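We read letters as residues; the fold follows as tokens. A sample entry reads:
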Amino acid sequence: MIDTTAPEIQKANLDVKGQDVAIELVVGDGFSVLGQVRYTVNSNEKWITILPDDFVYDTLQETFTFDIEDLDSGDHVIAFSLADDLENTRYQTYAVTIP
């Protein structure tokens, strides 16, 4: 079997708390171990790699819990890059508004 499918966000919770966004993601792939999850805010060129809650990419499904801090007031787009260990990649965006 050849895996050409990218991982997907199976659950996303983005909770705005003041100037911060608390994020919980469940990311899964049907065939391959996850390889990398990254994010950027407002199409910034700098992508930030995040580790799963257990600190190891070693399963088909991982949970990620982290905060993005000190965002300016207004609308923001948080983009995620999800890749399995075969480098099949998917992008997903979420909009948040900071009061």
Remarks:
- DSSP finds no helices and seven strands in the chain.
- The radius of gyration is 14 Å.
